[in-house]
Amino acid sequence: MRQLKIAVVLLLAVALPSALRAVWQPLAYVDLALIVVVYFALKREPLHALILAAIAGLGTDALSRGLLGAGGFSKVLTAYAVYFVASRVMLDTTLLRIPVLAGASLVDNLVYVGMNRLLGQRSPMPFVQALSYKLIATTIAGTILLYTYETYFSEKARQHRQFTVRRRVARRGSGILGRKRRGSTSRQW
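RE: above sequence
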């Protein structure tokens, strides 16, 4: 079941940017596949991150009609770099993930453009302009998406909600039952 969820999320992350481009052009600069790859690399799951990075990069290359393999290589290299940093430094807060997302976007774009230039491909937009747009858009969208996921949908959030309910029940129970056991409704000092 988990693999199916991951496959659906990855499919959406690869296919959605082309649909978002039709809605609003600046949304085309958000690299959702990179955000998914960074998430798995931050979870310290290197094999999943590398496999997802290769699939996401190849899928993105196929849909964008770019140099096939350049996106896969850049995302795999980025996933490994993020995993390497995450295995040595604790990156569990949102504030620490912001520079990681920015760095991942920078590495991914530099490797991708470098591979394209090495093989004689030219991009239609100036390098610095495309790099800055992708860096800003991916960092902002990635921060929002990762924060939303960690706050509402993750296992940690589910456990937090569960314990909140248990604490509420325990507080109510200890207050009412404690008074009934003592035989009075007022507090005794």
